[in-house]
Amino acid sequence: MTNSAFYGAWLWEAMDRHELPQPSDAPPYIxxxxxxxxxxxxxxxxxWIDPTREKAGGVMGMDAALSTLKPECAEQGHDxxxxxxxxxxxxxxxxxxxx
Length: 99
What we know:
It is a single chain. By secondary structure, the protein is mainly alpha-helical. 53% of the residues lie in helices and 4% in strands. It has helices at 5-16, 33-36, 51-63, 69-74, 80-96; strands at 2-3, 38-39. The chain has a two-stranded antiparallel sheet with strand order 1-2. The protein is elongated, with a radius of gyration of 19 Å. The relative contact order is 0.10.
């Protein structure tokens, strides 16, 4: 996650105008500005030129601790939590069916 000045400014204005509800126990925006400004942006999938090499490169980067599943999935327009959830469901079904 990173801090985004644009997102932080938008969020502050939305909260100031009461356009965005804030939980009653949450600190005021100005007191917790860095925490409120944390965000992740996931853009459109980049696509692949050579899927085999690029997938292998992603695996090598994760194995070498130079990357994680989050940015590898984001490059293809996927949310890593959804990927993990789907993968867990698929692995459970494979086990249930004895495959």
